[in-house]
Amino acid sequence: MKPNRPFSYSKIFVIGSGFFALTLIWTFYNAYMPLILGNYIESKAIRGSIMGLDNLLAVLLIPFIGAWSDRMDTKIGNRLPFLVVGMPLAALTFILIPYVSTITFWILILVDIFFLLSMTIYRAPVIALMPDHTPSEKRSTANGIINFMGGVGAIVALFGLSILYGIDRTYPFNLAGLLLFFAFFLLFFTVDRKPAYAGKTSDSLDESQAAHSLIEGLKTLRKPEFRGHFYILSAIFLYFIGYTGIESQFTIYAVEHVKMDESTAGLTLGFFSLSFVLFAIPAGLFGSKWGKVPVMLIGLVALPLIFITIPLLQ
């Protein structure tokens, strides 16, 4: 590392504000959009499919947008053009959701699609800002700051915005949209146009190289000596399918089966995010003391048992 290269923790916190707003909006959207769709669609499967659009767009577009932003060269840098387009549009369309939900279903879906596209446009570039501004030896700490702010965003969404939702459905959408606008202006006027460490993060992120790397990685996992890696990746894959499925359907279950009001359902879901923040550091300490695999297994056994038990407690 060159000694004259700049680094600032305050700038990392500003970059974290983008991740804070991103997580806040996604968390609130995933909790309450299924309930809004319920005004028009009774089928939980169809609602779940619509909610899966963001993941489909992420899989299809984010790798290419990320690689495109690596190669882009403009007066405002390579990441900011995507933020200039994506963040204001995402904020505006998110604010519109509760208003258009009372008009017609198709207008709601149209606004929702524009919202999802806008979020997808800036998601990868805003995350890439951290390594662009951080030397390799400080990235673990910077990554911890970014993830912490993301966790705080999820908690604020479910404990703060859920209360506002109970007062007036439009309030949390308005506030979250304004926070996203604020995060955009912070980023626009703070981040470097030519970050000092950008060259170190984009050398091998071309989409063709990424695709080649993925294919080669999958081939490698077929070898007997990498069978353990295959099992670990499979476990992570299955865990995310199960957990994300529960998370996206939780408010529907709470409102339509347990008969909670919508605001209370969101508050209850907030304890999921709170538990992650509270136990992240203890889990790391336990993993260092007793081994990562035993601690992971405790969680992977306990969590399904808890989920299976919940319907029996009605």
CATH topology of the domain at 9-193 and 201-229: Growth Hormone, Chain: A
Oligomer: single chain
Q: Bin the strand percentage.
A: under 5%
Distance between the termini: 59 Å
Order of helices and strands: HHHHHHHHHHH
Please identify which CATH superfamily of the domain at 9-193 and 201-229 we are dealing with.
MFS general substrate transporter like domains
Mean pLDDT: 80
Under CATH at level 1, the class of the domain at 9-193 and 201-229 stands as: Mainly Alpha
Q: Please describe the biggest sheet, giving its number of strands, its sense, and whether it closes into a barrel.
A: none
Number of helices, where a helix is a run of at least 4 consecutive DSSP H or I residues: 11
Protein name: MFS transporter
Main location: membrane
Keywords: Membrane, Transmembrane, Transmembrane helix, Transport
Transmembrane segments: 12-29, 49-68, 80-97, 103-124, 145-167, 173-191, 228-246, 266-286, 293-313
Report a brief summary of the structure.
By secondary structure, the protein is mainly α. The longest helix has 30 residues.
How does this structure look, described?
- By secondary structure, the protein is mainly α.
- It has a domain at 9-193 and 201-229: MFS general substrate transporter like domains (Growth Hormone, Chain: A, Up-down Bundle), CATH 1.20.1250.20.
- Helices cover 79% and strands 0% of the residues.
- It is built from eleven helices and no strands.
- It has helices at residues 9-37, 44-51, 53-71, 80-100, 105-132, 139-167, 170-190, 207-221, 227-256, 262-290, 292-309.
- Helix 1 runs antiparallel to helix 2, helix 6 runs antiparallel to helix 7 (170-190) and helix 6 (139-167) packs antiparallel against helix 10.
- The N and C termini lie far apart (59 Å).
- The relative contact order is 0.14.
- Mean pLDDT is 80; it is low at 201-212.
